[in-house]
Design brief:
The complex is a heterodimer of chains A (236) and B (293). With 236 residues, chain A is an alpha/beta fold. Chain A has helices spanning 42-49, 71-76, 94-101, 111-121, 123-127, 138-150, 168-185, 196-202, 220-225, 227-234; strands at 2-13, 16-27, 31-36, 55-61, 64-65, 79-82, 156-160, 188-193, 205-210, 213-219. In chain A, helix 6 runs parallel beside helix 7. Chain B is mostly helical and 293 residues long. Chain B has a two-stranded antiparallel sheet. Classes of the chains: A alpha/beta (236), B mainly alpha (293). The interface between A and B is medium-sized, with 24 and 16 residues.
């Protein structure tokens, strides 16, 4: 059963159509990745799911239409978005950033326990919890962004290029944690990446985007063997 | 020496009032990049409401609290009805809307209450308070106390409540805030409400000194601009410190620099604005505006 389903999804910035009718799905408990070059429409796809851009077509979360609804409501339905650029609240402390992640939750009593949980995933954030988030390194800020999203106890985690600008070791660490979150907490993931190798490793389903259209899709393992994908995105 | 201390305390009293109004300006500016030129008139109008309540027989502090609640609701309503429709308009449009609001509130007050000055009561005893050999005005000391209480409450609200945290987040990063489920539009409205309430305190504290009339906040607003400019428009604490400095400097200049006297006091505020903008445009505690383009 698909947790997230998009059908004939279109999005535009002003007069420019950026997504030309996408169909994709994220299975309950699954990890789906959307690959593509710069400007293919990957970030826009995530923004469309969250209601941050105007869209046409249908988006369903667990069968319910969410397209056209305000972002704040979509978040309350269990979608957490780690945005491009990480969306850090630079002038707030690390812990304040994390508390904001839990803002929309009703069970405020469980928040303290969840803080402990994300500190276990990301020990470095515990060390820095009184520091202003703006003083963190890029990798730490990316961890903070993922941790902030987890504080919402989401059903679906949207990740926008978590590897961007980070050292390979840090990238590995973040992907290891995303996998753990997926397995242990059953959080479904929609991952957008330019780093196709690492994304296909993590995902079970993949879509290849070119100029706002899906040009290939299937099991991640199959796409990894696909010659065209390999040459263009894996570089061997 | 006695004169000096008296003038300093009286400067701190008016300075706290300037600082409060400056703080209201800064709160809105930080959240929306809008300088609310109508902040003073909103405070003036609130003070008239307090006057109406007191004249109808309400005890002072009951009227004071009721006025804060009404001012909060009024500020919230103004944001929802007047500012929200032009939220995404060019900055100049919003400035014009604020100036329009200023003129409307001023005329409305004049129409309802007339332009004749009215005395406004102070909740503090009229007998001066003697500390050692120095005599201080009770209202001055009381106004300083009220300002401090307001600041403390605001600090606790923004530091230690979830709503306060969400408001700071919304001011810093609206998109990220929405992704956390924060209703940013409402946070801005609550910000306007709080600013209006803080302004109302300033109005009620200054009215016993300058008398109540529809134009009473015109000068005070200029002092508030001087305070916010001096402290830095990006720093709430700076705005308050700026207010205290402006209040004291204005008073001392009026007392000791003979050619300034009372007539040229307001000019010192304008001089402060000018000097700060020339020497350190971001103010004492502000950050220089850096924008990615």
């Amino acid at each position: 059963m698909a947790l997230l389903e998009a059908a004939a999804l279109e999005a535009r910035y002003g007069p420019t159509l950026v997504l030309h009718g996408l169909d994709f799905a994220v299975e309950e408990g699954g990890i789906t990745t959307i690959l593509g070059a710069n400007g293919a429409g990957k970030t826009t796809t995530l923004r469309a799911v969250c209601g941050l851009v105007r869209t046409a077509g249908e988006i369903r979360l667990a069968g319910r239409r969410i397209d056209g609804r305000p972002t704040e409501d979509i978040v309350r339905l269990g979608v957490a978005h780690v945005p491009e650029g990480r969306g850090t609240f630079m002038e707030l402390t690390v812990e304040e950033n994390l508390r904001l992640g839990a803002y929309a939750r009703r069970d405020r009593g469980a928040v303290a326990g969840d803080l402990e949980r994300v500190y276990r995933y990301f020990p470095v954030l515990r060390e820095r919890r009184r520091q202003l988030a703006g003083t963190l390194s890029g990798g730490e800020q990316q961890m903070l962004a993922v941790a902030r999203a987890l504080m919402a106890r989401p059903r679906l985690l949207l990740l926008d290029e978590p590897s961007l600008g980070l050292a390979p070791l840090v990238v590995q660490e973040i992907f290891r944690i995303v996998r753990a979150i997926n397995r242990e907490d059953g959080v479904s993931v929609l991952l957008v990446e330019q780093n196709a190798a690492i994304a296909l490793d993590l995902a079970d389903r993949a879509y290849l985007l070119e100029t706002g259209r899906v040009v290939r899709s299937g099991a991640a393992a199959d796409l990894r063997r696909d010659d065209a994908v390999r040459r263009a995105y894996l570089g061997y | 020496m006695e004169t000096f201390l008296q003038q300093v305390v009286s400067g701190l009293a008016t300075g706290g009032i300037y600082g409060s109004l400056a703080l209201a300006l800064v709160m809105i500016y930080q959240a929306t990049d809008v300088v609310n030129y109508a902040q003073g008139e909103m405070a003036m109008f609130s003070t008239y409401l307090a006057w109406t309540l007191i004249n109808a027989g309400a005890p002072y502090w009951a009227a004071f609290l009721a006025t804060l609640v009404i001012a909060f609701a009024g500020g919230l309503l103004i944001e929802r009805v007047v500012i929200r429709p032009v939220e995404n308009a060019p900055i100049l449009t919003i400035v014009i809307v604020c100036i329009g609001l200023l003129v409307i509130l001023n005329s409305l007050a004049g129409w309802i209450y007339s332009y004749i000055q009215k005395p406004f009561p102070s909740p503090f005893p009229s007998r001066p308070i003697r500390i050692g050999s120095i005599v201080f005005g009770a209202h001055d000391l009381g106004a300083i106390g009220v300002t401090l209480v307001v600041l403390l409450l605001l600090y606790l609200f923004f530091r230690h409540t979830t709503l306060g945290l969400a408001m700071r987040a919304a001011a810093q990063n609206p998109v990220s805030s929405r992704l956390c489920g924060i209703r940013v539009g409402w946070m801005l409205a609550v910000g306007w409400g709080l600013a209006a309430a803080v302004g109302a305190v300033a109005g009620m504290m200054v009215a016993p000194i300058v008398f109540l009339d529809p134009n009473m906040m015109a000068g005070i607003l200029i002092y508030a601009f001087a305070s916010a400019t001096l402290g830095g428009f990006t720093s709430p604490g700076g705005a308050v410190v700026g207010g205290l400095v402006v209040g004291v400097v204005e008073n001392l200049a009026g007392t000791y620099v003979t050619f300034i006297g009372t007539e040229l006091k307001l000019t010192t505020a304008l001089a402060v604005i000018l000097v700060v903008l020339l020497v350190k445009p971001s103010g004492l505690f502000g950050r220089a505006a850096v924008r990615r383009v």
